[in-house]
Amino acid sequence: MGYVQNTKEMLIKARREGYAVPAFNIHNLETIQVVVKAAADLKSPVILAATPGTMVYGGREYIQAIAEIAAKTSGVPVALHLDHHETIASIVESLELGVKSVMVDGSHETFENNIAICKEVVEQAHRFGATVEAELGKLVGQEDDLIVEAADAAYTDPDTVQEFVERTGIDSLAVAIGTGHGVYETEPNLDFDRLEKIKDLVEIPLVLHGASGISKEDVRKCIALGCAKVNISTELKIPFSDALRSFLVANPNETDTRKYMSPAKAAMEAVVKEKIIMCMSDGRA
After folding, report:
1. Annotated catalytic residue 200
2. Domain around 117
3. Is this model's pTM higher than 0.85 or not?
């Protein structure tokens, strides 16, 4: 502890012991503070997930520096993770800054192209002592500027999983089993049989994307079937923005950032703690 770490042992331990490490999408100082404080309060390991859009908004150097301070002062294991990065150049830039966990998203590519991209990223990342997550299949919905329509959503094919993992050398695998990014318009129908087949085929930890809006029972069933990392984004944005909006409407003349950010942070923190408990990672630090 004391520095941002990779996710290898973190996720292997979680899969072995039957819980998941929550990966919360962060965007700035306030959201990092909220997530790490909640994790420290509940003694949970935690992953700070930053999309390319977050890095553009906050700046790679700033996000890295804030995450390093958070890891140093929190007393719990903290990983800064590149979420849904698609270019090798952007990944290498963060590796050079000290990031230790990356996700390369080649799920929209052909199987062979996905393998080729992942292999190159694995080669680069492992030189820096960083871990690599990849994705097979596409998740419907929007993540940053990447939009996947429902008709284009492809479930992960269990028959391709073993070959993909062996040829790429990845450390964890995000699977498409019926989850999606953003707010669900209909009740998600998760393919647990597919997930169980995948779990039995590979030993590396599996990752559940699009967990916002999934019931606690379904998330825990996914954890029991090998998902050692659970990604949560939208369910954090809503309470933060709702509380911020309510405060500013009620206090239209307030200009002090510290005052209007505080209720937003408190609302988000309550949900972060709820999700840590859902993942059963509390007390695991």
Report:
1. no
2. 8-279
3. yes
